Amino acid sequence: MTKERLYLFDTTLRDGAQTSGIDFSVNEKIVIAELLDRLGVDYAEGGYPGANPTDTEFFSKKRTQKAKFTAFGMTKRAGRSVSNDPGLQQILAAEVDAYCFVAKSWDYHVKVALGCTNEENLEGISETVKAAVATGREAMIDCEHFFDGFKANPEYALACAKTAYDAGARWVVLCDTNGGTLPDEIKGIVGKVQAVVPGDHLGIHTHDDTGHAIANSLAAVDAGVRQIQGTLNGIGERCGNANLITLIPTLLLKSSYADRFALAVTREHLTEITSIAHAFDEILNRSPDRHAPYVGETAFATKAGIHASAILKDPQTYEHVAPETVGNRRRVLVSDQAGKSNLLGELARLGVEVEKTDPRLDRLLADVKQREAEGYAYEAADASFELLARRALGEVPRFFEVNSFRVMVERRFNAVGDLVSMSEAVVKLDIDGEQRMSVAEGNGPVNALDRALRKDLGKYQTAIDGLELIDYKVRILNGGTGAVTRVLIESHDTTTHRRWFTIGVSSNIVDASFQALVDSINYALLKAGAV
Amino acid sequence: MTKERLYLFDTTLRDGAQTSGIDFSVNEKIVIAELLDRLGVDYAEGGYPGANPTDTEFFSKKRTQKAKFTAFGMTKRAGRSVSNDPGLQQILAAEVDAYCFVAKSWDYHVKVALGCTNEENLEGISETVKAAVATGREAMIDCEHFFDGFKANPEYALACAKTAYDAGARWVVLCDTNGGTLPDEIKGIVGKVQAVVPGDHLGIHTHDDTGHAIANSLAAVDAGVRQIQGTLNGIGERCGNANLITLIPTLLLKSSYADRFALAVTREHLTEITSIAHAFDEILNRSPDRHAPYVGETAFATKAGIHASAILKDPQTYEHVAPETVGNRRRVLVSDQAGKSNLLGELARLGVEVEKTDPRLDRLLADVKQREAEGYAYEAADASFELLARRALGEVPRFFEVNSFRVMVERRFNAVGDLVSMSEAVVKLDIDGEQRMSVAEGNGPVNALDRALRKDLGKYQTAIDGLELIDYKVRILNGGTGAVTRVLIESHDTTTHRRWFTIGVSSNIVDASFQALVDSINYALLKAGAV
After folding, report:
1. Which stretches make up the Pyruvate carboxyltransferase domain (chains A, B) (predicted)?
2. Do B442 and A292 touch (CB under 8 A)?
3. pLDDT per residue over A14-31, tens digit each?
4. Hey, how many other C-beta atoms are within 10 angstroms of the C-beta on B238?
5. Which of B21, B471, B476 is closest, CB to CB, to A472?
């Protein structure tokens, strides 16, 4: 049976760019466009030429090799001709393979937002599509608020869709702009639209405001739609767009879709999807969602010790898909139940080479169990774990030794009666027999200590130049201010773009922070190949 | 038309506890149980008595007032009688309203994981349910891997479900344990199960491995199921369980469900859901998901300037539900009207009496907004908020004044070559014009400061005799060790059993801790009626 073709339309650089807290530079857009080609999407909507300088510059040349480079814009203003609409002309002039114009399809919006008649809106859609088609490139229309518009005035919504199709649009995309439509409603309405536009010319664009972005996209496909719009890692306004990283594996691995449809993305491409998702998070400079379907760090991690051996025997009975298919891995967590096979698995994952029979492994395993009982959560601190392992195998040089430190926080009134706080740290180090002593101030005790530690590392100074502390989390285990403190530090190297996590545990928060800081520096030196 | 009753079953404290990186203490479980009662769920699954010390202690008494307190466990071991199964006996003996036993329903798992025959497994289900029912309490069965089990051997899966129902189970819960089943499959299979178990005795338990946890839950409801299992903020193994915080608003606000079903949660409860979701994140000590449906900070925020005025004119045409219904806010303009009614609601909830027209309220509102922008999350710190409010109304005496403090942490080698850490704090106080100065040591800087603060409060000493610090959470806002620190302290009075939360924010962790500690002491004195 021949499979039908499903098309993927990525709007990371347009709708995704409207995410609160996200602003792409031209350079970032270029890098993301390359990522989209690596992923294998059919269309990459690059932005809105003319709307802002970044987008205008981005569209000065074609930025994709494989995906159809697409420009977004609005349909012709009412009361003007196509040639007399400079905004539209600017879009038509862009170096693209396709255009995607957003149009009103809810009569109420036509009145309130456009201030023109229903007929003028239809004319705008028709004229815009015709002008786009006349360039020889593909044209599509995003029918904004389509589902709410259909519920309010079905005839008009259908008229908008039909007008776009009749004018020659390759795709008429039905947008759940508010994100409030539910799957059965999507199915029912898409069914009705097929009276005026065939399914192979229909697209779906959803948002996650009720947690149904994925389900709505697939419901629309079930109802006949053949283009799905979404973003990388589901970024987008409010609660985000449909997450292509979640959709693609489902379409390729679940038989109810894989048997019926073919994508441009192949099973070989799919093994890169975890890497692509993480690379995108790096560009956004944010921690990956550890629980993301398919690609999340814990997507295939099981804590319940019961399953561990059973899973390794027959993964299919405990995992819905094999993690290797999406380039992810099974993570049986280094937990209280940690056995040797778990440990070997983790070491292999971190690239630590060791013989299964190496006697030092038993010692390391006992050490890990002991420390985990004390509060070290190594599943959250790969770098500390790797240091611990490599030290057990004699692979970590003694870069420096901290002989002592002192941290002071003082709050008092100054001479003019203002309440001031000050933090100061003094650190005494030994580097190759040479004593060094540094003092630093900071915003707080840990900041002061961090600065003092990194102020003068002698011959190692350049190796930690790019070192940046990104995040710092503290948890108190067993309650109260006298209990055990666990500190997790996330570090980043601005030159290598490497990101790592280290941990410290102590009843003293400054001590715990100190451990995590020292581990971070040692890890940076180890990875820099410092000698 | 009478609405059918839908039941909500929360498994945050059981399935949620299996989340990678999450470990609840007994104390945290107690606080979360109170949160669940505030939310209004029907069942709260507290954990697995006998499986670990925390859960065993948690089940030493009933921990909910409204929700049915439920114990989890496994069905009877094959080859033993109910009375001879100590694990099962321990569960049956717990102080609960209901039991939820997980049972195998996939014949392959019966063979590989249990190592018994299919019939023995059915007998285990039957005997367990009967024993539970005999206690007079509710019994339910979680049919593990039900959907995969049904696909592999439908007759056996149905036999498991039927056996549980025939033995008297109140609920037979169909679990998509792998998280890989899709909505149409859920619907189809649930339909078949109704041949042996009526829908009003069926439950659904989903996971988010394909992004369908919500859609699968609702698909099951559409197919006849009447209990939904989920967790707060969707925590849970791998990619998480169905998020009750996302489900509840949809069930109450979308007509396709609201017209057909009634929950124990009312529209009034619903206005607290944003606050509850954020409070839970605070307990987990993690950043809230800003993009979460309904309750996320950006759930109703629009960046596209186009909409701003149109939204305010007629929000219904741009928002799928009104943010106030879920206690969230539209973030387009800072609306004074919306802010003030929120504030009055909060004050009423805390028992602070004030006239709506009191002019001091505007000043308090501005103060709260300013502080929240700085990082004070008052929804997680009622006591600090109450102090702030009552101070604005002139109701809080000046019990004591801290003139200055100094905290020192030192780590060095002692005379015999051991590495030691010591922390010391000195505090200077003013009580009714009388100067007092105290010094104390501690396990860390905050512990030392806490002890020094409480060492000598003069005439107020007895009022804080029962004061105990239970928990202490730190979060860094905006990353790195130089950023803003937020400290949340949970305090407890052993004499009154009152429990309260206070907050401090500063770039200096010791300063932030100090604020929260001082608030805690002032709150204790206020509530003790100290003069």
Report:
1. 6-271
2. no
3. 999 888 767 788 888 998
4. 25
5. B476
